[in-house]
Write a structure and sequence with these properties.
two-stranded antiparallel sheet; 11 helices; 283 residues; alpha/beta; eight-stranded parallel beta sheet
Length: 283
């Protein structure tokens, strides 16, 4: 496992070169990039130039964003994303990236469980082969908090078991799981659940902590603490389980909270660095 940096997770809006510089300066091992957002800048800079900058900084590639964020997004958005995907995937490959991700929502207000499952399989069948052609794996993130699914007509996958079933049903070896400590905890999952995974099933890991003053069923996906900040999540057990199963990929902090947009960028990156250093020490 290695600690990787996605700068906008703490409200720092920088282009790829800036992310590389921050990752080097603050002792990260990997760098994550929003290629869908910064495609034009990357092409203007040149993949070879960025490759050299990543190498010169002593960094590894973590993961990159390529697809529309949610597998079940509106059809026009999905189709537009598919149209861009071959070129974006080729760009990711040129930069040395082998991982990307997408989110699976835990509900739908129109389609029942089976119909929604089939929609996901259809779209995975459209995207996964394109990604595989460029050596890319697709990590699917489940979303577990009750607050994110309550009040919707048709519940859907919100835990590790359901996500594994979807990945297996897709039949694509390059489709696996993103494990997020927040969702793992809110789903009531255990170290044993993580240890049931094979290393070849987990492509990306996100880490964070819960808001300490808030019951688990009231936690919000838009308000998460830095990893090790509150101590609510058993991050020692979480990290050691990932190590035991042989996960060797990127570990990226995702402390979603509106406060980061109001925080000085230096303070934000310093806080993130300190929390990630504590976290990696737990493994």
């Amino acid at each position: 496992m290695f600690k990787s940096l996605m700068a906008d997770m703490v409200g720092i809006d920088v282009q790829p070169v800036g992310t590389i510089e921050l990752a080097k300066r603050y002792g990260f091992t990997g760098v994550d990039l929003r290629l869908d957002k910064h495609e034009a800048v990357v092409r203007e800079t040149g993949a070879d130039v960025l490759n050299n900058q990543i190498a010169d900084a002593g960094l590894r590639t973590g993961y990159c964003s390529l697809l529309p964020g949610k597998i079940s997004c509106e059809k026009p958005m999905w189709q537009a994303g598919l149209k861009r995907l071959p070129a974006l995937a080729a760009l990711a490959e040129a930069l040395g990236y082998t991982r990307t991700y997408a989110v699976v929502l835990p509900f739908d207000d129109k389609l029942d469980y089976q119909a929604f499952f089939e929609l996901h399989l259809k779209r995975l069948n459209e995207a996964a082969p394109v990604l595989a052609d460029h050596g890319l794996s697709l990590a699917l993130e489940y979303v577990s908090p009750l607050t994110r699914r309550a009040g919707h007509r048709h519940p859907f996958i919100y835990n590790l078991q359901g996500m594994r079933e979807l990945c297996r049903a897709s039949g694509h070896k390059n489709v696996g799981v993103m494990v997020d400590s927040f969702h793992w905890h809110c789903a009531g999952e255990t170290v044993a659940d993580l240890e049931s995974l094979g290393a070849d099933e987990v492509f990306i890991v996100h880490v964070n902590d819960l808001i300490a003053s808030r019951p688990v069923n009231e936690q919000l996906v838009t308000e998460r603490a830095l990893p090790c900040e509150t101590g609510v999540i058993d991050l020692a057990g979480f990290m050691k389980a990932l190590k035991r199963i042989g996960f060797t990929g990127p570990v990226t902090a995702e402390p979603t909270h509106p406060k980061w947009k109001r925080t000085d960028s230096t303070q934000a990156i310093e806080a993130l660095t300190a929390s990630m250093d504590r976290l990696m020490g737990l493994a």
